[in-house]
Structures are given as structure tokens and as C-alpha cells.
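[job 0417] fold request received: Sugar ABC transporter permease
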Amino acid sequence: MTTMSTDMPARTEQTEDPRPKSARRRRREQQWPAYVFLSPWMIGAVVLTLVPMAVSLYLSFTDYNLFDPPHWVGLRNYTEMLTEDPRYWRSVGTTLLYVVIAVPLKLGLALGAAMLLKNLGRGRAFYRSAFYAPSLLGASMSIALVWRALYNDGGTIPHLLDSIGIHTGGWVGNPDLAMYVVVGLTAWQFGAPMVIFLAGLQQISPDLYEAAALDGAGRRRQFVSVTVPMLSPVVFFNLVLEMIQSFQVFTPAFVVSNGTGRPADSTNFYTLYLYERGFTASHMGYAAAMAWLLLIAVGVITLILFRTSRSWVFYADEEGR
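[job 0417] inference complete; emitting C-alpha cells
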């Protein structure tokens, strides 16, 4: 009896140990192909994103002019930016004004075009492609140059306005109108959010509109009570994307102002001023500090949007909404 009682645990251990090991081995064998296929992305994320971000964070605490070795200065770049640089705050104000004007205008045009295309029968694919094309072309330098020529002194837009009795002169050289040249170019590129809005509109059940019509709701009431709530997740998605992109606007402002932010810093957007301090003035440490403050600001605003979305974004599959 003693021999049997001492042998039993040993045999139990021998029969139980290999099972979890073989299961772990099988899981590893199933997972390694995924890591192989993910490895290009993982390597790219580390080499092209995480490492440059770490270097940029280090440079933001240094005095670096691209030619000499970086010199550690601590928080001097940040304190100078926030307390001693009036052009920095003007660039912040210009960028905020641009975001407040351009984002709602672009989303409004996108939603309006999507609602028109939703009820369009023949030719919807053609018009959808035509409206989407500016989103592919608008970010190029050549389109920005053409846009600048349209609004410059002697351009097409001032001539058209003169013909109807509105004398504005060239918008590019007018401090009160120069920023709206960039806003117009941004709003013209409403194709990408339009496609997303169109997909969201097609997911709304027609039964909801029929029920609203039976209750006596007209088209305007149906839009407010049915379309907007059911489309609110798509509106929120487009709002976050467009807000982040608008804070990073660069090419139109660079072309319209010839890279200077003129006239009177009216087109001196945040990223343009960052470029000027980093590559024109060779204050790369200062520019790195500006980039990190922009990242923090965009992150905070995005967090606020997510927090406030609980009060106005409606998800049909969530209880209690």
C-alpha cells in the first residue's frame, strides 16, 4: 500500500505536465504566422514613428540648429514659446479661427451633397466620383497654386465679384480675406466625409421615415428627429477626423502666403510657423517643442469630444440611449 501511494503522485505528474505544454506549443505554432505578417508594420511603427517621436521629445529640451550638436536647455523652449513669443500666440489664434470656420463648413457641404446623392437614381456613381475627386487632388501643391491664382489680384474670383458690384480686390493680399482662401480650398475637398455620410445615410431604415411621416413630421422634422440622431455616430467620426486634419493644415497656407504667413500673419497657421522656426530660422529644438504642444492640444480636444459625445451621439444598439 505504501509503494502504491508513493507512486501515484509521480504518475499523475507525468500524465498532467505534457498536456498544458503541448497546448502552449500549439498556440505558439498558430500565432507565429501572425507575427510574421505583422512584423513589417511593427518594424515601421518603431523605426518611423516611435523612434522619431522619442528623438523629437529630446530635441524639444535642447537648442539645436541642424548643424551643431544639440545643447540641453531644459524648459527654455517652452517658456519662451508661451511667455515671450507673440507670433506663436497669433498662430494659435489663426489656427483656432480656421478650425472653427473650416470644419463645420466642410462637414455641412459633405452632408448636403450626401443627402442629395442618397435620393439620386441614375448617375449617382458618377456624381459621387466627381465630388470625391477634389479630396484626392486638393492636397497637391499644383492645385494650391491654381487656387491662389484664382483669388490673387487680377484673378477670376475678384473679376466675377467686380462684375456683380462687389469690389474686394485680390483676396491673397488682403489681411481680412486671405485666410478664407485657405478655408475655401479646404471646404472644396468635402468628398471624403461625403462618402462616409452617404454610407451612414444608406444604413438608416426607411421604416423610421415612414413612421415619422405617419405622425405628421415633414422633411425638416424628419431630418432633425430621425436623420441627425441616427447619423450622429458618423457625424462624430467625421468631426474628429476633420478637426485633427485642420490643426495640421500646411500646404494651402504655405502656397497662399509664399511660406511667410503674410499678409499681417493672417495665414500664419501653427504648422507654418513651426516650419518657419525649424527650417527657416534653424531653431529645430523650438520647432520640436511646438510640435509636442500641438500633439498635446489635439489630444486634449479629442478627449473632450469623446467625453461630450455621450450627450449627443446616439447608438441604436446601446440600451439606455
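[job 0417] notes: The two ends are 68 Å apart (CA to CA). The chain has one domain: 86-311.
[job 0417] exit 0
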